[in-house]
Amino acid sequence: MGQPGFMNIDPNTILFARDLKVWFPVRRGLTDILARRPPLYVRAVDGISFDVKQGDVFALVGESGCGKTTTGKSVLMLYEITGGQVGYKPSQELMETYSKLGFKPEVITEFGHIDLAKIPRKYQRPLRREIQMIWQDPYGSLNPRLTIFEILEEPLIIHKYGFTRSDRYDMIYRALELVKLTPPEDFMNRYPHMLSGGQRQRVVIARALILNPKFIVADEPVSMLDVSIRAEIIELLMELKQKLNLTYLFITHDIAIARYIANKIAIMYLGKIVEMGETEKVIKNPLHPYTRALISAVPEPDPSNRLKMREVPIKGEVPSAVNIPLGCRFHPRCVALDEHSELRGVCDRSEPPMVEVEPGHFVSCWLYAKR
Question: How far apart are CA 365 and CA 340, in angstroms?
């Protein structure tokens, strides 16, 4: 079995990706067209597979530009999928809604998952009630011309939730209470610029929750906030998860936050997942050289109150997603090749498969695939 769970889908899996690819074409000049040069693509996501079970917090971790956010937006159908599948298990109510619309999405597993890429755009609106996103930037994701009440009322009007303004008022009141913006009436008539960064992010969370979703894509929800506010927002997300029975796809570049919030973790590098498994297994026993570099980059205070500087086992810069290196895409930066020179002719020619080193712990590296 190449990718984990490729052949079988667990009935408790709410969302899965299989060989997911999202490529963006690079604009070509007149010279390229006349010379008939082949088109180039930014391979933002280049064939990844993962499963997210109901109730999980699945974290995608990696540095900027590795394809984390593109993966999240493809799950939300905001980006067109170039190849592969994204399967989602909708609620029974949503399946009935599709039946009333006269559209029956293709069922790709016996457990009732539907292929999101095959749902026509005009039928996607009901699905968006169940899959919502918490955006990274609380300053740019809220319309500055609308009050908080109008911002939260907009999705209710679009999805026809609440027949009267009084009904919508009650829903907005409860949503603000959920994210601990109390008393709610003090915030409803304010504009975004009148709130602090933490309060704005709570409004963003309230907007994501107001339609009662099942699945949340959280795109670095605390990276734009002060350190003092981050812990409060993380605790709020975990509390809401338990209270509302939510499932998170949590996107972050901070492996320390991922360890705190996630029970499963996947490490991404240049459009690929290089290591995946239960969070504690990956953190305590990192297998891929890139994972080790990420963990080494986390600062730790020395007991003598001096910052302990550790050498980060990585070299060079991230290659371009247009010109991805042959073989293992991490090999130009890999310090493990200095110790295992016998792999030099393999790593720079062949891409390593994803192998299961221990139960539930997968890695894509020739150090383990060769064994």
Answer: 12
